[in-house]
Amino acid sequence: MEFRTLNYFLTVVQEKSISQAAKVLHISQPALSRQLKQLETELDTKLFNRGHREIHLTEEGRYLANRGKKILSLVDKTTKNITTETEVAGEITIGGGETKSMKLVAKIIDHLVKQYPEVKVNLYSGNADDVLEKLEQGLIDFGLVIDPVEKQKYAYKKLPAADQWGLLIRQDHFLASKKSIIPADLVDVPLYVSSQTYNNNKIAEWCGESLDSLHIIGTYNLLYNASLMVEQGVAGALCIAGIVNTVNTNLKFIPLQPKLKSGINIVWKKGQNLSKAGKVFVKYLAEI
Length: 288
What we know:
Elements: H1 3-15, H2 18-25, H3 29-43, E1 48-50, E2 55-57, H4 59-83, E3 90-96, H5 102-115, E4 119-125, H6 128-137, E5 142-146, E6 154-170, E7 190-194, H7 197-207, E8 215-220, H8 223-231, E9 236-240, E10 251-255, E11 261-269, H9 276-286
Parallel strand pairs: 3-4, 3-5, 7-8, 7-9
Antiparallel strand pairs: 1-2, 5-11, 6-9, 6-10, 6-11
Helix pairs in contact: 1-2, 1-3, 1-4, 5-9
């Protein structure tokens, strides 16, 4: 499969029309149709069905579209990092969950791009499971994740910061007057918890029991939408401090007691051939 042909296919997917895609690609419609037919023959599968007004992807077509976008993104990023003629340029991509520790990373990025204006830093937001998956696929260069770190698998830098866990509730909740939350306070309280397995294990350890002892009505991967559930009185949310701004809102964050904190690390794959920009980023990390 040639990258050019894959780009043709993805353009058709985006435009939902072979004729419109041909205009965007500046090639004739018959030529584009032949390329797509050749791709289906090469893969021995049907990628889409032609409708009256637009195409409809088959299951195999949807799979190729999803993987194809990642493939071309990786090719584009790799090409930029290799062909740059400046001393330090290219792109790095950093993935991370919602944490105040990103402010430390922001200081490094600020220093990096001021020192090397040709460097571009992309950000990806997701929980640790999402971030590590993309790190394994080579789609991001660095991940911001909580303890523990698989030290045999990743190189890492532990940041001089930790996230405080607590309960996000409405100001009119019956627990809102408390200074801290103990496990007994949460009995029968509807809760949203992080979908990340490790975070849930941390909460279970804090409770001293399994998560079955809590009234968990659902999970979240990023906190914003869960905070809307809290705002509507659907449930409380066990989360880390500082992600949702509670100032001048009907929300309140109350820390857990005993205190529950999570250490934060920047990780990257051991043995990874980092770009020039990536190497400088690691150098700045070491100086924290």
